[in-house]
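Late entry, written up from scratch paper. The run itself happened at the end of the previous shift, but nothing got recorded in the book at the time, so transcribing now.
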Amino acid sequence: MKNLLVIMSLMLITACASTPAQQPQVKRITPEELAKILPPAVATISLDEIVNDAKQGKTPDEIITKIQTSNSRYELTPAQTLDLSKQGVDTKVLDYIHQSNELAKQNAMADEINTREKERAAAEKILKRERDLARSRYYDPYWGSGFGGFYGHPFYGYNRGFGSRFGYGYGFGGW
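Output as recorded:
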């Protein structure tokens, strides 16, 4: 008897179990796509000029302003950063170079994400419109929600009872 009760309770528990909701799939960016998205590092001022400016005694703010006005961006390796530091370039300048490069990458990625999100929203809107159109295939805007809509109830004869022997046609209701 107890075994039967245990079996019945297990069957009830397994019958009530539901399957977990499907996880949304993440669309990954391939390295080739990433290379196309990220802006290339363009340096109009060479690293040698930055080293010369640092050796000439220019302040870090003056060097940073020079880099900003030229719209230069550098992709430095850790070895290059260490080498520039040993040659006398201030850490404030090196920090700015790394931060501006990372900010440019982040902005490029945000633009790509926004573009993909807009494309997804547009595709979703088209699918929703198609779904709504398929749902309302038999909708007549002139007929309306009730019988007659804008023009009033349709005329089915004087006696509108279903199967009436005194009236003209078949109505949808009695008197």
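Confidence is low (pLDDT under 50) at residues 146-152, 155-160, 167-171.
(Scratch paper discarded after transcription.)
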